[in-house]
Amino acid sequence: MDKFRLDHTCALITGGSRGIGFGIAQALAEAGANIVLAARQEDQLKQAQAQLAAPGRRVWIYSFDMSQVDAIADLYSRIVADTGGIDILVNNAGGTRRGPAETVSAADWNFVINLNLSAVFAMCRAFGQERIQSRRSGKIINIASLMSDTVRENNAPYAASKGGIRQLTKALAVDWAKYQINVNAIGPGYIRTDLTQPLWSDAKFDQWVTGRTPLGRWGNPEDMGYAAVFLAAPASDFITGQIFYVDGGFLSSF
Questions:
Q1: In the chain, what are the domain boundaries?
Q2: Dihedral sign, CA of 239, 243, 248, 250?
Q3: Quick one: how far is CA 209 from the chain centroid?
Q4: Phi and psi of 103, rounded to 5°?
Q5: Which DSSP category does 116 fall into?
Q6: Which one, out of 43, 74, 181, 235, has a CA that is 20 to 30 A from the CA of 173?
Q7: Domain 2-253 belongs to what architecture?
Q8: Which residues is 61 bridged to in the sheet?
Q9: What is the pLDDT of residue 196?
Q10: What stretches in the chain show pLDDT beneath 70?
């Protein structure tokens, strides 16, 4: 099972202080990786850092707003200087602005596309440039969505951004395979986190999700973490350009 270990690696998780991002960070840390967390709220970052701390493990934190796309290259350079290099990049940070498509403002559209797609590309580009220059392999894991493959009403900007993540993942996988950089994505189903509490605490919506999901439950952040360990580890070295849906069978039941 050594092929599933991540000893002597360093993983950067954006939006890693809570929810799915923190679940992934926990799993990668348990597999042996040192951890870098980048998120907006410093208090949440410090709390996550304390939870991940363990003998022999290093955890760095950076307070940063991923919507500041033009500043991502400088952030990444600082992280590399501090850590010695990132082997695994998890692009988890994201957001949405909901509403009927005919009422979506240019500001809301640009916010979602900028954060969910442009920032991911900027992070991937910084990672790829450093890996190529240093002639070192790497693993990128983007966080896609059920809406990379299907849609629900009143979420056009989000669906467009996550459809873009699906194609960006495939494009980078093809471009960077020659550099031994694997690029894959995880597509979460409905995941029970503090951010989704308004949904799972709504009895009607909760019933709809569990009824539509063949495994009959919401996912947990750790479900995403286990998938991330596989995609980050040597066990997946021959896998690239794929979207792994961790959704309890949701998409298969249509």
A1: 2-253
A2: negative
A3: 22
A4: -110, 0
A5: I
A6: 74
A7: 3-Layer(aba) Sandwich (3.40)
A8: 37
A9: 87
A10: 254
pLDDT value for 199: 87
Q: Is 62 a catalytic residue?
A: no
Q: Are β-strands 59-63 and 88-91 bridged in parallel, bridged antiparallel, or unpaired?
A: unpaired
Tokens of 59: 């955890």
Confidence at residue 212, expressed as pLDDT on a 0 to 100 scale: 94
Rounded CA separation 207/31 (Å) = 35
- pTM, to two decimals: 0.96
Which member of 158, 190, 226, 245 is catalytic?
Answer: 158
Strands 34-39 and 138-143: unpaired
Helical segments of the chain, H only:
19-30, 42-52, 72-83, 106-113, 119-134, 156-176, 197-200, 203-212, 221-232
Query: So what's the pLDDT on residue 43?
Result: 97
Q: In this structure, is the dihedral angle defined by the CA atoms of residues 19, 96, 10 and 229, taken in order, positive or negative?
A: positive
| Tokens at 22, concatenated | 């923190």
